[in-house]
Amino acid sequence: MCSHGHSHNCASEHIPEAAGDDVYRYDMVSYIDLERVTTLNESVDGAGKKVFKVMEHRDDKDEYVESDCDHELLFNIPFTGHVRLSGLSIIGDEDGSHPAKIRLFKDREAMAFDDCSIEADQEIDLKQDPRGLVDYPLKASKFANIHHLTILVSANFGEDETKVYYIGLRGEFQHEFRQRVAIATYESRAQLKDHKNEIPDAVARNVF
């Protein structure tokens, strides 16, 4: 087993709420910038981003991520704009490889394992949930307006490696990044200005 060279803060919350099929909608995958998702300690490069599936494919066991040299996985998840996250769901295997504890960090891009020694924005003890029926609510005060989420799987139920089939996020899209909005506004104004400039020219030609 390898060491990532960091310490753990074991304070955590146990706040799962049992949910029936499709009581919650985990539709935020459409707002994840999947091309930029990175997963540290994955045994197969690029496998981590494949667990962010549409909800209807959450039972698909063909695509998954498995940790490499120990039980930890670290997901860096950028969004395409600002979002409000209100809950999540995690599906693992029906054995000790299922994640048992996660630590969440907001708006800290490109985190490495050594960065995770800081206080997390939320820590959650998980249940073994191979069907994705447990919903884990997120703190409204912490995740109301974020652009990046980091998920550290810090423990599983006893195996050397951790396996994850699905991570679903629920919430709402808030707004696009201000820079993109500013560019769009600038371009719109530029086009309007060009159009306005054409009017006097046309009038001038008609008058003279």
Describe the structure in your own words:
The structure is a single chain. This protein is α+β, with helices and mostly antiparallel strands and 208 residues long. It has one helix at 178-207, and strands at residues 17-18, 38-40, 65-66, 73-92, 99-106, 122-125, 134-137, 146-156, 163-176. It has a domain at 29-173: PITH domain (Jelly Rolls, Sandwich). Strands 1, 2, 3, 4, 5, 6, 7, 8 and 9 form a nine-stranded antiparallel β-sheet that branches. It is built from one helix and nine strands, in the order E-E-E-E-E-E-E-E-E-H. The protein is globular. Residues 7-12, 14-20 and 195-208 have low confidence and may be disordered. It is 14% helix and 33% strand.
The residue ranges in which pLDDT falls below 50 over 5 or more consecutive positions are 7-12, 14-20, 195-208
Class derived from helix and strand content: alpha+beta
Largest sheet: 9 strands, antiparallel
Strand content: 25-35%
What is the gyration radius calculated from CA atoms?
22 Å
- Which CATH architecture of the domain at 29-173 would you pick? Sandwich
Mean pLDDT: 85
Gap between N and C termini, in Å? 85 Å
Helix content: 10-25%
Order of helices and strands: EEEEEEEEEH
Shape: globular
CATH top level of the domain at 29-173 is Mainly Beta
The CATH homologous superfamily of the domain at 29-173 is termed PITH domain
Q: Find the count of extended strands (DSSP E, 2+ residues).
A: 9
Tally the helices.
1
Could you please say which CATH topology of the domain at 29-173 applies here?
Jelly Rolls
